[in-house]
Specification:
This protein folds into three domains: about 60 residues; about 30 residues; about 130 residues, Rieske [2Fe-2S] iron-sulphur domain (Rieske Iron-sulfur Protein), CATH 2.102.10. About 35% of the residues lie in helices and about 20% in strands. Strand 3 and strand 4 form a beta hairpin. It is rod-shaped. It binds FE2/S2 (inorganic) cluster.
């Protein structure tokens, strides 16, 4: 009888320790599952964030978003303005540059030529317009519009001086070629051509330098009208 009861105690102990082991295993499993789920959740947030940033860019503050929108709007306006210039040049044989009376000998007026390059308009000492490309023949910077005492304008990028009458660069300048002249005409207030000069220097009409008020300067698409 005593042996039986010993066996029963041993069996009970064995049963309890097995139950305890099972409970521990379940706890370990649950802890592992919770840790795994948390890791997956955190990982998914990180991936979602990367995904969002990849497609939509970094998250911006309100003021940064405002600045970004302004920059985009400015770019769009510049593109529209450029397209308008392009269309205007495609459809017109003459493009208005300035009233002749508004041109000066020492400060050039910038305008855009038929090739959509920056250009400069002056009035020469003889009262006749001078129109030149303002795109430096070295590496393409825009030359300045102020004329120095030698009748030159400066390209500030690598220091080339160009004579505004001939377009030629100073000796030893990085630029080796002259600035191109641009064909122009003068029109009176009835929009009749009274004078003109082509890019290669051929003149037509009254080139005396004495013009009526309201004379306006135009660039010309078709240079036949000035030769
Ligand atoms: S781009 Fe004008 S000097 Fe170089």
């Amino acid at each position: 009888m005593a042996e039986d009861s010993g066996d029963t105690v041993a069996k009970t102990d064995l049963g309890e320790s097995s139950l305890e082991r099972n409970a521990q295993a379940r706890r370990r499993f649950l802890r592992g599952a919770v840790a795994l789920a948390s890791g997956a959740f955190l990982l998914s947030i990180g991936i979602a964030d990367k995904f969002f940033r990849f497609f939509f860019g970094p998250r911006l503050s309100q003021s940064e978003e405002g600045e970004l929108l302004e920059t985009r709007l400015k770019r769009m306006q510049e593109t529209v303005a450029l397209k308008q210039l392009e269309l205007e040049r495609q459809h017109n044989n003459y493009i208005f540059v300035a009233e002749l009376s508004d041109l000066q000998a020492t400060t050039g007026k910038y305008f855009i030529d038929y090739e959509l390059r920056p250009a400069l308009a002056f009035v020469g000492r003889d009262g006749v317009p001078i129109l030149l490309s303002a795109k430096c023949t070295h590496l393409g910077c825009t030359v300045g519009n102020q004329v120095n005492e030698r009748n030159q304008v400066l390209c500030p990028c690598h220091v080339s001086y160009f004579d505004i009458e001939t377009g030629k660069p100073n000796p030893g300048a990085p630029a080796k070629l002259p600035l191109e002249h641009i064909s122009w005409v003068l029109m009176n207030k009835e929009r009749r051509i009274i004078a003109g000069r082509s890019a290669d220097g051929k003149g037509t009409g009254n080139l005396s330098g004495n013009y009526p008020p309201d004379t306006a300067v135009y660039i010309v698409k078709n240079t036949e009208s000035v030769s």
